């Protein structure tokens, strides 16, 4: 039976778009100039060509739509029943049948009007026949508006279905909602199924793939099933029933022994008994999930299921008629012992290190994006924890980039940590004396700011040693933009003895002495 790739189905246009595209293409791809003085056979051929071209475009596009969509009688019963559950088989067949009828009607309309056009005796009558033919074709297609919209919705949903191969090695997970089926498939495969603490998180079939004994396996995660009659089950539950009924797979019935899913063990056993007929002729594993209290020291669930399914498939093939052809090609060579010396396998240390480096089960480092999704509104981005500093205690220092309009990076002094607390009052007194002698250089507010900085050590490495921030050489941008302070009208005080202040700037590598 044919297995369809539903993602290759072309988009189904709406009736309006269908008509607009076809008529526009007819106008572009056929001749557009005709005169009444042309011979009548030339005029007839001109309009016949337009009618035939329009009919052919409608025919080709409708044929492609009908060919792209799967025929329920030709595909695997799993897909046929799944489409019946999702889209209603009768509605689906009616929509395709109406498009097929519309295609035949358009062909008949074009055939009739081409025959009538052979008897047209003037340009006007041929043109009116052409308009009538194209109008009837468009009317037929307008009546298929609902069918085209329905098929487009089906196409979009089919393209989102997982690619499940009904004939390959398969593990099928089933059970009550919220018992851990999606978490299991996320662990053993490369799938990424949404896991939430509420029921019916999984609303459709999901598939993942894994490798076991050098073979590729597909693991199918089904929506949760509740214990009630078949006719009362909704579309979500019927998808799981369809997979159980038609897929040849090892069934993993997942049970929550902790009863955190909201259903007792008795209810889970009753569900198991109600759907047990669907497990006929299939390997069955009962998985005791969330067994934190009751430890089960056995093989992992996926290994048990794979081993049993392999044994089941081998036994099935051994009972067939082709087993002798396969066994004749198999030969197991066992070397004879040459002595009694034990020769254990030797694995180089480099290979062991490489295998350890390739471990995929190692815990992954959480990225900031993962933390943001996990914490939600409580997440706060903190880039300081990744700073690579010699002193780890300095990561949380609150160092602003700009202080009172000045760039702090221009006034960094690495020797600030060498200043003791006892020296701070002396530095403040020295700076106040300098400001008193040179009021045009700095003010008392600048010295007070410096004093507070030294007291609280909030900058830890960024201090202005010459009159706060103004006495040191400023960056060129600050010197150009600052308005010079006018000297007072009173005569300046007598010159004071020179005071040498060492200034080290990050932007200037040399040292200066200012008096």
UniProtKB/TrEMBL annotation:
One of its GO terms (biological process) is ribosome biogenesis. GO terms for cellular component: nucleolus. Residues 169-303 form the OBG-type G domain. Its main location: nucleus. InterPro entries: G_OBG (IPR031167), GTP-bd (IPR006073), NOG1_N (IPR041623), NOG1_Rossman_fold_dom (IPR010674), NOG_C (IPR012973), P-loop_NTPase (IPR027417). Keywords: GTP-binding, Nucleotide-binding, Nucleus, Ribosome biogenesis. PANTHER family: NUCLEOLAR GTP-BINDING PROTEIN 1. This is OBG-type G domain-containing protein.
């Amino acid at each position: 039976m044919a297995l369809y790739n539903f993602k290759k189905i072309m988009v189904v246009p709406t009736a309006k778009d269908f008509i607009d595209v076809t008529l526009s293409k007819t106008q572009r791809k056929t001749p557009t100039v005709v005169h009444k003085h042309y011979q009548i056979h030339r005029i007839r051929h001109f309009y016949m060509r337009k009618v035939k071209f329009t009919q052919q475009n409608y025919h080709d596009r409708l044929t492609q739509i009908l060919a792209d969509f799967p025929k329920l009688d030709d595909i695997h019963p799993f897909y046929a029943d799944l489409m019946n559950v999702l889209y209603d088989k009768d509605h689906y067949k009616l929509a395709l049948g109406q498009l097929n009828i519309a295609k035949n009607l358009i062909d008949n309309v074009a055939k009739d009007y081409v025959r009538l056009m052979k008897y047209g005796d003037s340009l006007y009558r041929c043109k009116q026949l052409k308009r009538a033919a194209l109008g009837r074709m468009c009317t037929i297609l307008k009546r298929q508006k609902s069918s085209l919209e329905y098929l487009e919705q089906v196409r979009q949903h089919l393209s989102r279905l997982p690619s499940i191969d009904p004939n390959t090695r398969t593990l099928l997970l089933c059970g009550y909602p919220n018992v851990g089926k999606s978490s299991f498939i996320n662990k053993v495969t490369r799938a990424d199924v949404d896991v939430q603490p509420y029921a019916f998180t999984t609303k459709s079939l999901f598939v993942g793939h894994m490798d076991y004994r050098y073979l590729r396996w597909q693991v199918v995660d089904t929506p949760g099933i509740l214990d009630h009659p078949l006719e009362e089950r909704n579309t979500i539950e019927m998808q799981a029933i369809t997979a159980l009924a038609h897929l040849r797979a090892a069934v993993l019935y997942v049970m929550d022994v902790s009863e955190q899913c909201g259903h007792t063990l008795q209810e889970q056993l009753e569900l198991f008994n109600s759907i047990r007929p669907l497990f006929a002729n299939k390997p069955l594993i009962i998985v005791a999930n969330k067994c934190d209290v009751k430890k089960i020291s056995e093989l992992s669930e996926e290994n048990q299921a794979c081993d049993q399914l392999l044994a089941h498939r081998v036994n099935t093939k051994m009972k067939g008629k082709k087993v002798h052809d396969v066994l004749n090609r198999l030969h197991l060579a066992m070397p004879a012992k040459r002595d009694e010396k034990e020769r254990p396998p030797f694995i180089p240390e480099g290979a062991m290190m490489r295998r350890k480096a390739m471990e995929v089960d190692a815990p992954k480092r959480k990225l900031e994006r993962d933390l943001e999704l996990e914490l939600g509104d409580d997440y706060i981005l903190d880039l300081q924890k990744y700073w690579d500093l010699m002193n780890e205690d300095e990561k949380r220092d609150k160092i602003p980039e700009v202080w009172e309009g000045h760039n702090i990076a221009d006034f960094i002094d690495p020797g600030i940590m060498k200043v003791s607390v006892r020296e701070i009052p002396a530095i403040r007194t020295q700076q106040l004396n300098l400001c008193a002698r040179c009021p045009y250089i700095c003010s008392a507010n600048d010295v007070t700011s410096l004093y507070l900085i030294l007291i609280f050590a909030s900058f830890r490495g960024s201090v202005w040693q010459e009159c706060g921030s103004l006495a040191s050489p400023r960056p060129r941008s600050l010197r150009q933009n600052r308005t010079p302070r006018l000297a007072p009208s009173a005569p300046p005080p007598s010159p004071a003895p020179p005071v040498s202040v060492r200034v080290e700037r990050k932007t200037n590598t040399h040292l200066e002495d200012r008096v």
